[in-house]
Amino acid sequence: MDLPLPVDGLCDLVLVRTGDGGLARPANDGTALTADEIAECARTLGIEGGRDLRVLVDDGAHDAALFGRVATALGCDVLVTPAGASVRRRTGPGLAGPAEAVPVDRASGAVVDWVLVQPTALQTTRPGWFDLAGGLVLPRTGLATLPLAGGLEFANREDFVVRRAAAARLGVGHPDLVTVALATRAGQFRLSTYRQDAAGERPGRYSGQDVAAALSATFLYGGDLRLWLRWPDDTAQCARLDAEVTALAEATGATVWTPEVGGEAVLLRGCLDLAARDRSGAVTPWREYRPPHAPGAPRFATDRDGRLVPGGGPTVGATGGVALISSERPSEVTFLERYADLSAEPGMTLVDLTILDGGRLALRYADGSHLAVGAVELRALLTNAGWQGADLQLLTPVADEWTEGLREHLSVLESDLGVEIWSLAPGAVVVVRDGLARAVDEQRRPARWLRAADADLRAESGRWRNDDGWLIPRRRGADEPSTPAPGPSPAEPAAGPSPAEPVAAERSPGEPAAERSPAAPAAAAPPPERVLPAPGPRPALTVPAPGSRPHGLRWLPDRPEVNADPVRVWLASPWSPQRVAVEGVPSADLFLVGDLDGERVARAHPYQHLLCLRVEAGGLVDLDRVGDLPADLGHRVAAAAGSFLLPAGWLDQARLQAGYDIDDAGRPQEETELPGHDVVLRCTGARHGTDGLPDDVVRWPAGGRGAGGWALIPAAGDEPTDDFLPLHQGRPPVRDGYLLVRLRVAAGRAIDARASAAALAAHTSIRSRLPELVADGVTLLLPPGSYGDTRVEQVLHTDGGRWRQRAKGVDLALPNLLGQRPAPDVWRPQPMR
């Protein structure tokens, strides 16, 4: 096939089908090409320099996934024919020339439009650089722009696909705030037109008045305009840009908001709103540029997350056991009245907030608007309400179409707050039953509570579990009631009140309160027969002598109170006793937590395994005698009184004795005798997502400031082959098939592999992956749990054995380049309880 009439900014590549349906060059039609080979063919045709690729082959959309990888490798869009269409050369009235290439549907003979395939890692619903209409590829006219939630982005050709992906992530914000995304150059604004001149002149520099003219179709006078930009590094350029922003405010008559000079606006994960940050990643205020004679006080202010919010702040309340309410529901009076009867389980805080279309959790503000909530603001509001780090139970009903968006936002809040967050299943509502929140569906049958960190909605992890519509502590003992109060079982034909039970025992929003008649007491079941020996008495305690071996835990006092005599303790393990004897006890922490009562441990861990250990004198710490604990450990201790700690540095004082399988009822089964070896701890399951490393590592960069680093990522948009990204302080050697990205790593979000390995070297009972990583030359690494917090600043690709710039000055979350969403259980340093 001859090449069609060329289109400026578009590179045409002719391919044919192989006998088995693959894609090949016409000169070698028997050999199918890979995505990398197709990308290399395009490079030989001059695809570089801000051009898109059009592939002239029949049924191109059949290979959309392959072309998505080609687009990622090239950093551009790819145009292909729809499935069932062939490429035809057409002339005639209305067509641009005598040799236009158009897709034609083979069944109907009708001309159809080209299909836009975006890079796999940067897919959006936004349009491409060209207009696709009537089977033609038509250059757009005017300034290059992209739609932005509540505004507009001025785009540029060379980094178009990267900025388009960033713009697509921005969520809908305040209705009275217009957002405009702009690049800057030499102290002025950078604007591009879709049509480039014959010399390929680069985008020019424009003044604030020019930008005001470009925005003339948007009514801004008397309103508020937020600029999504990054200030230059050069002081003189900052001064010039400051004058241009002032001119923009004067020309539009709008109050213009920018980050402080020298800072930048970044897109926050979860709430998907813009925040002002300095170059170290710290929160800074938004700066206000008011036009002359602007009346009144500013309508917006900077919140604790660095976002622009209405000046009156959020409207919040509390009633009964619900610590935080910021919602607007029908019949709000009876809504609050119903919550007055509600109480929370120990270790849980009840909240009721707004959920926006799309699933983001939001606060109601004094002006009646609803904005997605950030983690810092939510923490402050909870703390003001008396919150002390308990897990959160969200009482707001969830529409089915909001599930994915809500889970993404709650996952970020979970990691930032260091707690578990549970929400209702789609379609479920809360009724008040015996003073506690019970989830029921439309037929009043018990419904499930869902945790944000559980990717499989049928799974259930964490410190809480479902029980007939209630959410109860997972470690609640069998001697306690399994539900807050007697009630109908799931086997009953109706989940609503029985004839003998007053309707007021369960109430939904809008139902009036009424007195409850006391429920009849349930007959106590006889305690089950013990399988294991009865727990021994609590051991006498002593304090280690001065100069004793270090225990290896930075948060634990140097000389905690320990057992004075040998003691038997029990702990749960997801690994079988046989595997533990060979590989060690799996743990994400540098310690193990045991209990004197083995059957209590078994009841709390059905389907797992039970280990029996003998700990010599001085090897076991009584946690009831320790003050401040990490938040996660504090929850575990609160749920199971009488817990003891085995620090990694003292594990050689513990011996494996026996193991048991635990059945679905939490009962120990057949005993497995174990050799009396010293206990070994195998690092696995850490929150940061890199297996073989403990949660407690040496973090990088130290202090409160972020730092830059380089990383190699697959060019085809695939996820990294390992569960971490090695970080380099300088540019690494060129590697084919990879992109080189410059990353901005927030403080403490990466891991210093060498320092972490050195910190564990003295503890011979720990088995970790760190020595192997250090031997392979890894000095710094970025775990998956930190991908979502890491920003991409530059993107480079390989070209003739060297790195070549593809995009600079971008602000994009790293997961967008890795073809994945942010990890749900993002790693954070654990606060103290």
Topology, please?
Layout: E1 10-14, E2 16-17, E3 23-24, H1 35-44, E4 52-56, H2 64-74, E5 78-80, E6 85-90, E7 100-105, E8 115-117, E9 130-133, E10 136-139, E11 145-148, E12 151-154, H3 160-169, E13 177-181, E14 183-185, E15 188-191, E16 204-206, H4 208-214, E17 224-228, H5 235-252, E18 255-259, E19 264-267, E20 274-277, E21 286-289, E22 300-302, E23 308-310, E24 317-319, E25 322-326, H6 332-339, E26 348-355, E27 361-364, E28 370-372, H7 375-384, E29 391-394, H8 403-417, E30 421-424, E31 429-433, E32 436-440, E33 449-451, E34 464-467, E35 470-473, E36 541-542, E37 562-563, E38 567-573, H9 577-583, E39 585-587, E40 591-595, H10 598-604, E41 609-615, E42 621-622, H11 631-639, E43 643-647, E44 654-662, E45 668-673, E46 681-683, E47 699-700, E48 707-714, E49 725-727, E50 738-745, E51 750-752, H12 753-760, E52 766-767, H13 770-775, E53 780-782, E54 791-799, E55 802-813, H14 815-818
Parallel strand pairs: 1-4, 4-5, 12-13, 13-17, 17-18, 25-26, 26-29, 29-30, 39-46, 46-52
Antiparallel strand pairs: 2-3, 5-8, 6-7, 9-10, 11-12, 14-15, 15-16, 18-21, 19-20, 22-23, 24-25, 26-27, 27-28, 30-33, 31-32, 34-35, 36-37, 38-41, 40-43, 41-44, 42-43, 44-45, 47-51, 48-50, 49-53, 50-54, 51-53, 54-55
Helix pairs in contact: 1-2, 4-5
Task: Quote the distance from N terminus to C terminus.
Answer: 71 Å
Strand proportion, as a percent range, falls in: 25-35%
The coarse silhouette is globular
Mean pLDDT level: 84
**pLDDT under 50 segments (min length 5)?**
476-526, 820-833
- Largest sheet composition: 8 strands, mixed
- Oligomeric nature of the chains: single chain
Instruction: Give the number of helices.
Output: 14
